[in-house]
Amino acid sequence: MPSDYAEIRDENIARYGWDTAVLELLGQLYSDRTHFIFELIQNAEDAGATDLSFDLFDDRLELRHDGRPFSSADIRGICGVSQGTKAEDLTQIGKFGIGFKSVYAYTNTPRIYSADECFRIEKYVRPYLAEPPEQLPAAETLFVFPFDRAEVPAVVAVAEISAALNNLDAGTLLFLRGIDRIRGRGRQLADIVLDRRSAPHPHGGRHITLGRRRDGRRIDEEWFVWHRGLDAIGEPELRVEIAFAVRADVDARRLVRRESSPLVVSFPTQKETFLGFVIQGPYRTTPARDNVPEHDRWNQALVHQTASLLTDVLMALRDEELLTADILQALPLDPARFRPGTMFRPLFDAARAALAQDRLIPAAAGGCRRPGEIRLVEAANLRALVTPDQLGELCGATGQVEFAHDSITDSATPMLCRYLRDEVGVEEVTPDSFVAAITSEFLSSQSDQWIGRLYGFLYQNHALWREPGHPGDQGGPARVQPIIRLEDGAQVAPFGPGGRPSAYLPGPAVPVLMAEFATVRRSVADLPDARRFLEALGFAEPDVLAAVLDQVLPRYHDADPANLDSEQRDADLELIDRALAGAPPAGREGLLEQLRVTAFLVGENAATGEQRMMRPGQLYQRTKSLEIYFDGNPDAWFAADGYGPWLAQLRGMGVRDAVRPDAREPDQLGYVVIADEFARHERGVAGFDPSATLDGLEYALRHPNEARCEFVWNVLLVPNRHLVAGIVEKSHRQEFADASRERARSGIGEAAATAAWLPVADGTFRTPAESDLADLPPSYQRDGALAQALGMTQPVVGEANRQLGFPPDFLRRLSKHPDLVAMIERELRTRAGDDGRPGGSGG
């Protein structure tokens, strides 16, 4: 028996009044007026329907479903405002609350036929009896929506509704629990069928297959859906859900991360979750369902329930071996999007806690691990080199430590890696940290084959063993780690003191003197990758040069001259000579540099005869003239007498055979740069260097004898007269414009001019100022320039001093002071005037 429509109409007129203009707004709730389609689907779902169809005609839309027939309560609900049977729950608009009013965007007089109920609605809230259709199955409910709104012509209504139905996606059915099939057909419509098949999933949840057939062409999509009842918050009939899209591969199924995922309240809302999966629940929304209040306590409770469900889903995915890098990237990873206090922050916290505590991070060898059992790594060659046992040992763990799955890298999954490091606490192994962690004990326990693979890895990572780029730079970390395996099994660093390779490559047999080399283990060095790396380090097979550097010279470190074996000494010198003669230019220069800094020669002190190990450059060859010159000088050292047969070779190694001045070299114009600073420029002229010195000169001049002084004059000073005294130019300008010139003596000149060392006939020694060049012994070379530089008296000037009764060097000294000469001249003229005589030349 039908309901009393007049009674319901009168009640609503009493409630809403005769003027229903304000109710007109209910048809304009949605920006997209075709949204009413989803409201009708939701109504059918709430009525328990399993099958639903839309038929579009030129003048109307018809909807049929097989749900529960209308009751009197349903009629009151559909004709009221917010009078659904669950009006307090804004999501239950399927009970004909505000949601159904969205149909009034296209119609003024919807008609409903359901079992005994046949009525039309006018003015939104007033039901009237309607004639039943000729044919209507007893178990079917029919809605008819005439296109009778003046502002939306039928042709517009058909175009908009047909477009919406043509675009209806199979995902519409994903979270419905009753409707398994939706069909659309009619005007401007392809024959569209959406269907849903649901089956229990072995590890909980449901495996849902959604299909969409259009004009005979079918496309299926699969989903895994998990749900959690809301018993904990007092609504056991309700649930929250999580769904992951599934892609069927050749031999398995895998889950797929979504790029966009709005929150679903039966159907998608405009609230983006920024997740890679879909979450659904009975959230409270605004009447237009275009917003979800974040701070609503009910909505917050639903998010917390979804967070608990997410933890369970992660465990299930792990157990099904479906937890991949792609799925981890679907989680709430970005703390900037999930800040504390935001709606979906509980999902961020739940995922982080689960990953930090449980085995949920995919490992390279399969399965999942906790943060302490796994390490991130970017370098594929490092991943291939190190086993879980080795990684565990390097990490100081009690068991194995595995690398994360090779799909988890900074280059492929940067946000996931950052999240695992910063939020979950997973440590990362880099090539640098790996090299820094290896120890001698670790390397000693590895096979020769693995050591060869290690060298191959290092060769591919040049930064790990690069040379230092500047003072203070240590170079690559591998340069100081014990990575080199010697033939005896010892592990040593690749470079020793001075940066030279610490070992040699194994080669053919070598002379007896070279038989005790430290060499890389042959079974390692013969591996192609290892050989390439070792040669790139500068390792080579031993030769004579190597014998000198690694055996001969180290033998003399802290050696006692008294215990040296003469035969060994001669053999060593022969080997050094062979190395210098046969080495290529670069090797020869390197050897000479090493010889210059190594104390491998026995020196004898010129004063005491003490013997000491010394560098070649500290020694002189013992010659008669040098013995005369250095005799008694405690700072002078000669090469020991035993080196007599090797004098020529010693000179090649740096032992000196003559006393040579220590002076700066002049440029091509003969200038010696003394100072070159801002506004201060000085230079010596004609090769003069005021800082020039001669080794042992001061001692020799302080301890004169005839033979020594003759050596100093003839051998040291005459050839180097330009270094005794000279002209120094000074200027504020770099080009020496307006330069001043002054005469100066060098250290050599000052020592020779002030010491009493020139012999006289009575067997004593005088200073140069007290000596005349003509009075020097005949064996002395006559060099006027040297005599002048030393301030020696000249013959004519000396005679003038004698006749005038002046001291021997008076006129010479007077000539150096023109101002004093002028003053004397003025005084003579004054006195001549007083005597009445002209002041011309006196005397």
Could you give a quick summary of the protein structure above?
This protein is an alpha+beta fold and 843 residues long. It is 32% helix and 19% strand.
Task: Using brief descriptors, characterize the structure shown.
four-stranded antiparallel beta sheet, 27 helices, single chain, 19% strand, alpha+beta, disordered C terminus, 843 residues
Please characterize this protein's 3D structure.
With 843 residues, the chain is an alpha+beta fold. It is built from 27 helices and 31 strands. The strands form eight sheets. Strands 1, 2, 3, 4, 5, 6, 7, 8, 9, 10, 11, 12 and 15 form a 13-stranded mixed β-sheet that branches. A four-stranded antiparallel β-sheet has the order 26-27-28-29. A hairpin with an 8-residue loop joins strand 28 and strand 29. The longest helix has 23 residues. It is elongated, with a radius of gyration of 53 Å.
